[in-house]
Design a protein that fits this description.
By secondary structure, this protein is α/β, with parallel strands linked by helices. It has 2 domains: 2-220, P-loop containing nucleotide triphosphate hydrolases (Rossmann fold), CATH 3.40.50; 224-294, 2-Layer Sandwich (Alpha-Beta Plaits). It has helices at 40-47, 69-75, 91-101, 106-119, 135-147, 165-178, 191-197, 215-220, 236-244, 274-284, 298-314, and strands spanning 2-11, 14-24, 28-33, 55-60, 63-64, 76-79, 153-157, 183-187, 200-205, 208-213, 227-233, 249-257, 260-267, 287-294. It has a 6-stranded mixed β-sheet, with helices on both faces. β7 (153-157), α6 and β8 form a beta-alpha-beta unit. α3 (91-101) packs across α4 (106-119).
């Protein structure tokens, strides 16, 4: 559905996108992540025909973004990070204007506006001037515009920017629902949202793709950094020395409070030390109040790979 090969974009001497390649298959939601200035917004603008690339190739729904830009625009719904709205125009008028640009008839526009008004929660302010809306409301207008013509592909750059927690949850559910019938490329800084919404994640930093896979696959690459948290009542020094003596333990951080000793244990690769900790406390007669595995998150992976890439560039 989306094909990118050796795509490069320069702004004079600045290399914003550096020879990236990736595919997004039909259906589902793919996360496109990166720190500020990583190149993700630039790549999205190329895919939506808002600006040309310096070299490489890209296609959306089988249409070349460089040679068939009008066809690409017809099949893509694009929500930029800051939606380009007209403050003096009312929401309904704006959506009519955008639908007319897409060649939709008046009855088609009316039907579509009713539909997106319900889906994007615009009913209470559909006839208010856009300039009177909050940032979150404006973002909802931009999302309504992006989906109004029922495009095959949605490219969403920070779709929950400015929304309150309730609206973020509703938007996340809407995106997951849209992903059942549309192909969605989603950029977001809220990694928790990406984990809950996307079946696959692409991470870009310094203009280059540094990782790609499902959130679960990326987390598993940090499995060695998952910790075991244990809290028990026993002599602190003996608790620490006993935990360190276990075969599967690489390192232990210890803290004490109110007679309880809390261990943050870093296991060796391929070791799950929870059963060993349970046997240790049982044999010593210590009370065990907590024992759990604290897995690595997508945020942990994101921070690690972006830091590694930045370190490599500064050398």
């Amino acid at each position: 559905m989306i094909r990118v090969k050796n795509l490069t974009k320069r702004y004079g001497p600045v290399l914003a996108v550096d020879d990236i390649s990736f595919d997004v298959e039909q259906g589902g939601v793919v996360g496109f992540l990166g720190p500020n200035g990583a190149g993700k917004t630039t790549a999205m603008r190329v895919l939506t025909c808002y600006q040309p690339a310096t070299s490489g190739s890209a296609s959306v729904h089988g249409f070349d973004v460089f040679k068939q830009s009008l066809d690409v625009r017809r099949c893509v719904g694009y929500l930029p990070e800051t939606a380009p709205l007209y403050p003096e125009v009312r929401v309904r008028e704006y959506l009519h204007f955008r639908g007319k640009l897409r060649g939709m008839s008046y009855p088609e526009r009316n039907k579509a506006i009713r539909h997106v008004s319900d889906r994007c929660w615009l009913g209470d302010f559909i006839d208010r001037p856009i300039g009177q809306l909050s940032k979150g409301m404006k973002q909802r207008v931009g999302l309504a515009d992006a989906i109004m013509h029922n495009p095959e592909v949605l490219i969403l750059d920070e779709p929950t920017l400015g929304l309150d927690p309730g609206q973020i949850r509703e938007t996340r559910n809407l995106i997951k629902e849209l992903g059942e019938n549309h192909t969605i490329l989603l950029s977001s800084h809220i990694l928790h949202e990406v984990e809950q919404t996307c079946y696959r994640t692409i991470i870009i930093t310094a203009g280059r793709i540094v990782a790609s896979g499902s959130p679960e696959e990326l987390r598993n690459q940090l499995s060695a950094k998952a910790r075991v948290i244990a809290e028990m009542r026993g002599p602190p020094e003996e608790v620490e020395s006993s935990a360190r003596s276990l075969d599967g333990v690489r390192n232990v951080e210890v803290s004490s409070s109110d007679g309880w000793v809390r261990l943050a244990i870093e296991p060796k690769p391929e070791h799950d030390v929870r059963e060993d900790i349970f046997r240790l406390t049982s044999s010593k007669g210590w009370s065990l109040r907590e024992l759990r595995r604290e897995g690595a998150s997508l945020e942990d992976f994101f921070v690690q790979v972006t830091a590694q890439q930045q370190d490599a560039q500064t050398r």
